[in-house]
């Protein structure tokens, strides 16, 4: 499950060694990545014209339910493993604590976001005239171009650190643009990212969690880059402490930021997640 800006393409970057999906299949699993409504290849016509932020977590878990039910039938299984990153950690956790949680055998929350105040994000998401309100300028969706992608990613990496491969960056940007048939018609070329996700993040970063960890009872792994300022250590550990999972692990990888899975650290992220899933499925 993808995050707030980049669709499932982030987990299938067409570059050697950069695809989480491929690494998962190489570990022996059938791997799928879902584009939530409005994202990537699940684009929605007229998205930018919508007056309100589109595609919140409550909508996303309906899409997850459709995918999970389809996968269980396709592979003749009662349960699957679920991975969610960033905003996708919220949707994955929400699903895994809901009515269909029995269908999740193991849960991996990468760059997890729970419910701690994050002033850096609040300054971006708040109404400039009233910091206690969500910025009304965020309508249905926003365009994301190469320049904004680079700026967003650079802001997540500590100064002087060379954690990102430029060829991987270009592969992610160009494939993301290619997934949106209207991207080339925008100036500069840009794909769309729904803004409902930002409203969810507004709630979480104001200390208002969108899910109840005490209802998550499947084995759960939390994994984050040590320098991540979006998924903070304090927030992730607070989540870890209240998870009801009988098996739970917290892994922090040094020299990685919020997009560690697409940085030089990527293969280590993949191995960590796959090792956890193997432990749960083959116990």
Automatic annotation (TrEMBL):
Top-level taxon in the UniProt lineage: Bacteria
UniProt entry tagged with the keyword Magnesium: no
Assigned keywords, A-Z: Hydrolase
InterPro entries in the cross-refs: AB_hydrolase_1, AB_hydrolase_fold
The UniProt record lists the keyword Hydrolase: yes
SUPFAM superfamilies from the UniProt entry: alpha/beta-Hydrolases
Domain AB hydrolase-1: 27-263
Gene Ontology molecular function terms on file: hydrolase activity
Cited Gene3D superfamilies: alpha/beta hydrolase
Protein name: Alpha/beta fold hydrolase
